[in-house]
Specification:
The complex is a heterodimer. Chain A is built from eleven helices and twelve strands. By secondary structure, chain A is of the alpha/beta class. An eight-stranded mixed sheet of chain A has the order 6-7-8-3-9-10-12-11. Chain A has a four-stranded antiparallel sheet with strand order 2-1-4-5. In chain A, β9 and β10 form a beta hairpin. The longest helix of chain A is centred in the middle third of the chain and has 18 residues. Chain B is α/β, with parallel strands linked by helices. Helix content of chain B is 28%, strand content 23%. In chain B, β9 and β10 form a beta hairpin. Chain B is globular, with a radius of gyration of 21 Å. The N and C termini of chain B lie far apart (45 Å). At the A-B interface, α6, α7, α8, α9 and α10 of A face α6, α7 and α9 of B.
Chain lengths: 344, 351
């Protein structure tokens, strides 16, 4: 029984623009496990969306997967698994199309723009079913109605023939979820699925996703910048900064014993309900220009605990405990590194 | 309510702005002759007041009319009915809702607005200097030399380099653009600033910087804020008192601690329980209230209390009779038939 469904190894996605190369994803390792929720956290521009889209091999030019592997364990029945390297597949080939939308599905950030205005909601959901299964149109339509009622859309037999503009934001997001679930995916990627929604709707959608996850034993890869949402739903958390995963652990450790200065600063900068009015502790400066990446540790210009070495040495992944890794010189054995003669 | 024939008055001397029974209806038209077939009651009978120097939060889900209230106060929209009483420095009170055109000009500099989206609210063809100084120029409030000094001072004050004055907005990030918007709002020395979701589009680390800046500026320039937001933890952080709206109506007004610790309206309770708690250990501690259905349609609201179809405490009277906004104790106003009897839970407090 393979519990690790997706294993990303040293993934690099670079964007080759006229102004220079943007290293959007620069050596990312991730594992997505069956029935678990991994939250990928970071500020805008840190590369989290690009990294996740690459799991479906949707990387638009000038972006390109430069190196690394995305190993997907595809079930062949009878407890057998075949390992596929998604990164090496042709982005428009037959193999990736078998996986995309069927095995790995995605919910996009903006339900307003990611549904086509020209087709009815039902049509768009049925398209995925007809593409990946041998169902007839009538069966697909029945399944679509069933899915719509499962995600909590009232009067699904009527809404199935409506165009997306007739639906509210929350309803559209539900329709997107129904579409993503239509082929019982093993891995569901949700790219900021609740960012554009109100808190009450957000709470309903999160509950729905967790229920469905339990029901289908899906692995959930949840991309967000909202730490409150992370605390509510995640099992594991990976914190991303400028294309690198700077800290990774279980959700309790990340919130209660974070080690990387960036994670600590992020947690300090959010207003909390229980907090009295007073000054927040923001992270100084802002995410650097992607064309002018700082040398050494990419976080050092904003880091309150930066050492002189941080400007030159690139930190490597340090394992603090079984499931807690961090990329920071504070936790590295600097003397050993100098002795080993690694200037970079 | 106040006598229509006499000049308007505000009873409490500390109150800067009093909104009484404000209404804003948008006509729904149909056909090529734009026949009016109904009205969307975006704001329907809203009353509240803002004290001098305080930050009043205005919260609610999208479509509840909170932005429309803000826009009526800056008179971007002419209200359909009601009063917006504004107190001058010298104590004189005017009703902004009744003023027209030129008469409003002096108030345009007293009451300023910061918009939600710093990407669409700055004209890409104007330099930062032009953007910030535009009001001064239009209203002939300063000579060019004074203008330059003042823009320079304000840019420095909001944390931007004055050397960047001649740049265009595209050269700035979201957080910096929001700083430009703040400088533009403060250039006329306003007394009241309506902040319409000023931090919703920003990243967490930048959001904290902007919130701190807004608080600092409030102390330095003796500003009063009307802070419109749907983010309840931000509202809790920055606001002294909070008004909760639902489908164009006020359902609860309270000081911000009271509202979060002991809400008295079932809708407020549901809002509070929906706020994600930033501590995974507190995850299972509270049972969430799930609101069934969707927010009501303001052009075709339900009978009685607008919230009753989604309210778990609703009884027969709720569908028949509209609850009035009544004072419970001290600063607390609630529009619910059972506000006094219900035992409601507040937000889950981490730590």
């Amino acid at each position: 029984m393979a519990d690790i469904l997706v294993e990303v190894k040293n993934l690099k996605i670079h964007f080759f623009t006229d102004e220079g190369v943007v290293r959007a994803v620069d050596g990312v390792d991730l594992t997505v496990e069956r029935g678990k929720t991994l939250a990928l956290v970071g500020e805008s521009g840190c590369g989290k969306s690009v990294a996740c889209r690459s799991l479906l091999h949707i990387v638009h030019p000038p972006g390109r997967i430069v190196s690394g592997e995305i190993i997907y364990s595809q079930s062949m029945g009878d407890g057998l698994y075949e390992k596929v390297d998604i990164a090496s597949l042709h982005p428009r080939g037959r193999r990736i199309r078998e996986i995309r939308g069927k095995e790995i599905a995605m919910i996009f950030q903006e339900p307003m723009t990611s549904l086509s205005p020209m087709y009815t909601v039902g049509n768009q959901i049925m398209e995925n079913i007809l593409l990946h299964t041998t169902m007839t149109k009538r069966e697909a339509r029945a399944l679509t109605i069933e899915l719509l009622s499962k995600v909590g859309i009232p009067k699904p037999d009527r809404l199935v023939d409506e165009y997306p503009f007739r639906l509210s934001g929350g309803m559209r997001q539900r329709a997107m979820i129904a579409m993503a679930l239509s082929c019982n995916p093993k891995v569901l990627i949700a790219d900021e699925p609740t960012t554009a929604l109100d808190v009450t709707t957000q709470a309903n959608i999160l509950d729905l996703m967790l229920d469905l996850q339990k029901q289908y034993e899906m692995a959930l890869l949840f991309i967000t910048h909202d730490l409150g949402v992370v605390a509510e739903i995640a099992d594991d958390v990976a914190v991303m900064y400028l294309g690198r995963i700077v800290e990774r652990s279980d959700v309790d450790t990340i919130f209660n014993a974070p080690r990387h200065p960036y994670t600590q600063a992020l947690l300090r900068s959010i207003p909390k309900i229980a907090m009295k009015r007073g000054t927040l502790d923001p992270i100084k400066g802002m995410v650097p220009n992607p064309y002018r990446r700082p040398g050494g540790c990419p976080f050092h210009p904003r880091c309150p605990q930066a050492l002189p070495e941080c400007r030159v040495l690139v930190p490597v992944t340090t394992r603090l405990s079984e499931n807690h890794t961090v990329e920071c010189l504070l936790y590295e054995d600097l003397a050993a590194r100098k002795a080993a003669g690694q200037p970079r | 309510m106040s006598d229509q024939l006499q000049s308007p008055q505000i009873k409490d001397d500390n109150v800067l702005l009093e909104v009484n029974n404000l209404k804003k209806y948008f006509p729904i038209t149909r056909g090529i002759f734009a026949r009016v077939k109904g009205y969307t009651r975006a704001v329907d009978d809203v009353s509240f007041f803002i004290r001098k120097g305080e930050t009043l939060g205005l919260v609610g889900e999208s479509g509840c009319g909170k932005t429309t209230v803000g826009r009526c106060i800056v008179r971007a929209y002419p209200p359909t009915g009601g009063e917006i009483l504004y107190r001058h420095d010298d104590g004189a009170v005017v009703d902004l809702a009744k003023l027209q055109g030129e008469e409003l000009r002096t108030y345009r500099k007293d009451i300023r607005m910061i918009f939600q989206d710093p990407y669409s609210s700055l004209n890409p063809r104007l330099t930062v200097f032009d953007l910030v100084s535009e009001v001064l120029k239009v209203n002939k409030l300063a000579t060019p030399a004074e203008m330059r000094d003042r823009v320079e001072y304000l840019l420095k004050r909001v944390g931007l380099r004055p050397e960047y004055m001649q740049r265009y907005p595209h050269a700035f990030s979201g957080g910096e653009r929001q700083r430009i918007c703040i400088a533009r709002a403060l250039i006329t020395n306003p007394r009241l600033v309506v902040c319409d979701e000023p931090v919703s589009g920003l990243d967490v680390s930048i959001r904290a910087q902007i919130l701190n800046l807004l608080e600092e500026l409030q102390d330095d320039f003796a500003l009063t804020y009307l802070f419109i937001s749907h983010d309840l933890s931000v509202v809790r952080h920055i606001c002294d008192r909070v008004v909760v709206m639902y489908v164009g109506r006020v359902v609860e007004v309270a000081d911000s601690i009271g509202l979060y610790v002991s809400p008295r309206h079932p809708y407020t309770e549901a809002l509070m329980s929906a706020v994600p708690v930033t501590n995974p250990r507190a995850r299972r501690s509270g049972v969430r209230i799930r609101l069934p259905g969707e927010i009501a349609d303001p052009s075709n609201p339900p009978s009685g209390c607008y919230f009753h179809p989604r309210c778990q405490y609703a009884r027969s009277i709720c569908a028949e009779e509209e609850p009035a906004l009544r004072r419970l104790d001290g600063e607390r106003y609630v529009a619910c038939h059972f506000a006094g009897e219900l035992e409601l839970r507040g937000a889950t407090m981490e730590d």
